[in-house]
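Hello,

Our lab assistant flagged a job as stuck in the queue for most of the afternoon. It eventually completed. Since we weren't sure the result was trustworthy after the delay, we are filing this so someone can double-check. Below is the sequence as submitted and the structure that was eventually returned. Let us know if re-running is recommended.
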Amino acid sequence: MECCQCGTCCVAPDISSLGKPPGVRCRHLGEDQRCLEYGNRPEVCRGYRPDELCRRISAPTLEERVARYRALFDL
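-- returned structure --
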């Protein structure tokens, strides 16, 4: 599966190496839902791969996708 560049993985989970708590937009996520620091992103971000979870949380808006992600993991 290819990344649909929805931005959910840059908002929903925590990214401790960036001090980003779950549900908070990463400071490196641009308005186009793309990483502004893609070449220098942390190892944890490099490990994200689109999978079935992306399909399960699919929704029209970033806010809805994040809400579905958080509900799925009880965050």
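-- support follow-up --
The delay was a queue issue, not a problem with the job. The result is valid. Residues 8-72 form one domain. Helices lie at 43-46, 52-56, 62-72.
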